[in-house]
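FORM 7B: Structural annotation worksheet

SECTION A. Query
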Amino acid sequence: MGVLAGRTALVTGGGRGIGRGIAERLGRDGARVAVHYGSNEAAADETVAAIEASGGSAFTIGVELGPPGDAQALWEAFDRQADGLDILVNNAAIGTSQPFGAIDEREYDRVFAVNVRAPHFITKYGASRLRDGGRVVNISSGLARNAVMPDKMAYAMTKSALDVFTRDLSKVLGPRGITVNSVAPGIIDTDVNADWLRADEAAWAGAAALSALGRVGTPADVADVVAFLVSDDGRWVTGAWLDATGGSLT
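SECTION B. Predicted structure
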């Protein structure tokens, strides 16, 4: 039996990249995983298939995040397939890479709606479904504490807001034995980063050089940190910001 046997997890944005890595790891550890997706149903189906091929159990939830009412719609879809929750991973996010003087109000609002408002209200409405002793993990970013990419300012701001949410929420849910933590990846080899990261050898080498460990991170690197936090071993860690950048901030 896996360490998460009998538990149910929801991973937003679980069909691709870091979210897929987390969903697959939780599935291997025995959790039944709800794999949320916004638009790429095929990717979410692939994640479910991978979890099931490893002997796990999973199902998909398709809800676009950002529009008003998204959190309620997500939980309505979840309730049709599961009864109660033990682990919530707020991973879904969108990025923007525009100079300070170029980003417009519509793009700014869109990034904050998906990256800040959605996890806030997903957690708010999910709290009644989350069992005592449960886990909440918010996927932050090393950019929340590093100005190495100023064109990603708006995105970094959303992750800083998510970190404040993490700290305060840990106090709110702590009396129920629920832990709340942020995990901050650095540069990770995903399809989202592929256009620039794999553009040439110099780009890859430059990204690897940012890490104290001299390599580019993988979704599994982040998933393993999340797996610790949601396991019984992570019971005494809450309100924390965990650096999962491979030493990029040192």
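SECTION C. Observations
The chain has a mean pLDDT of 93. The first helix runs from residue 17 to 28.

SECTION D. Sign-off
Analyst initials: ____
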